[in-house]
TrEMBL record:
GO biological process, one term: spliceosomal snRNP assembly
Gene3D superfamilies: 1.20.58.1070
InterPro entries for this protein: Gemin2/Brr1
Protein's organism: Candida theae
Record's protein name: Uncharacterized protein
């Protein structure tokens, strides 16, 4: 991350395509509310056993076989999460670009942006390039905590919706660092006698499930 991103300088982003609020973004919000309610019933992270090892090759991560399921409840929850995640990604990919328009250009302030709700999903899809999305993941990894607000999860969710699962080695490393941080913080949250944050707990579970299952890093699901 360049030093300029550590300041509060604005990064003006000009969308490659016109952008507007569309149904997709509302569905993202509604779905997050639903899965957060389901996740609130989970008291701790439930892990999978894996059958194979993950090897990061020179440029891209390979396709992995599904890990062996050892907990039916986690399998059901995570399977539904990934299913809905893929459905939303497909809807975003196939939406008619001719019907999309925008009113303003979003300005990203690195010090304060993540405390507020993220812009419309189409800003992520059409205005942010891939490298900037991974830069955002690096920043969010640094800022994760057991007392974080729901806006962090919203930013992460939309970045995940933007990024496909064909990864270069450096991109894979960023996602793994994010998931490892979430695992450590989830354990810390579970052990805390003073902090009860269901939003943080859901966000950690969401990170671990998506990085482990969608982005193929299933070894991170092993306890």
């Amino acid at each position: 991350m360049e030093d300029s991103k550590g300041s509060d300088d604005e990064l003006n982003i000009s969308p490659a395509f016109p952008i507007d609020d569309v149904n997709t973004d509302q569905e993202v919000i509604q779905y997050l509310q639903g899965v957060r309610s389901e996740a609130s019933a989970m008291n701790h992270i439930l892990y999978h056993e894996r059958e194979d090892h993950i090897i990061v090759q020179d440029h891209h991560t390979p396709i992995h076989s599904e890990p062996t399921v050892t907990d039916v409840k986690f399998h059901t929850w995570s399977t539904q999460l990934i299913h809905n995640f893929k459905v939303l990604k497909e809807r975003i990919r196939t939406q008619d670009q001719n019907t999309i328009s925008y009113d303003t250009i979003y300005s990203l302030k690195w010090k304060t942006a993540f405390k507020n709700s993220p812009p419309d999903i189409n800003y992520f899809v059409y205005a942010l390039d891939r490298k900037l999305c991974f830069d955002i993941l690096v920043e969010l990894t640094k800022r994760l905590s057991i007392t974080m607000k729901e806006t962090f999860g919203q930013w992460l969710w939309k970045v995940f919706l933007k990024l496909d699962n064909i990864l270069e080695a450096s991109e894979c490393a960023i996602l793994r660092d994010l998931a490892k941080t979430a695992i450590k913080l989830k354990s810390k949250l579970d052990e805390s006698t003073t902090v009860a944050n269901s939003i943080a707990g859901y966000t950690f579970d969401m990170i671990i499930a998506i990085v482990g299952l969608y982005y193929g890093q299933s070894d991170l699901l092993q306890g």
